Amino acid sequence: MRILLLFALFTLPFMPSLVGQTTQETAFLTLINEYRAASPRCWDGQGLRDWPKDAQRTLSYSASLSTSAYQHNVTMIASDCTDHTCPGEPSLAERVTLAGYPAGWDYLSENIAGGFETAQDVMGAWQQSTGHNRTMLHCRSRAIGISTVFEPTSLAWWYWTTDFGDVVERAQSAPPPPARPAGNLLQALDTNGDHRIDDDEMDAAVNYWVTGAPPPGFDRPITDDEIAQVTLFWITGQRI
Question: What pLDDT score was predicted for residue 7?
């Protein structure tokens, strides 16, 4: 079993891990909306002011902005670049348009970060940074896209991008989010509930993968990409 596990680790193609990240993205949406709701003032581009009567404190989740954010994370990892526009990459405005964000927007902004494992960690860091904090509290923001990507072969490991806009897209017109393994796979494998993949759980995952049997609570067999990503969670000890 251990030989098979190492074979899976070193022979399957590696891509930025998307398994289990939905939990942290959802947690960040909750945190930023709680933060905006508790703040008596917002940033209008010139200074802090009382919230306008027509301001939307609660940000709506945007699938297209999340697609843009995800693509930027992947670009940062692939190009070893931590910036808002990496070499050869479209601008933020072009990126959100390509991702399907509706036309007619007047305001866009973005926060990026590397090295923070949890939503609470990155929220705390951005709150301590004047520019990032202003972005989170901007009066004109109404929609947010959130992406965090885990890549253990990169310098920062965890990459975060949040894209903000002033247009709330209709749910039916939003493109699907980036293709990713089902988000509950790690939860299905975490049979002892410690939010990690331990040795016994990794052995069980490989057995499910080899036999093609879905893990209990999961609705299909584990794919090759997923077993490689689960293996990375096991090796690094990353929390689910």
Answer: 43
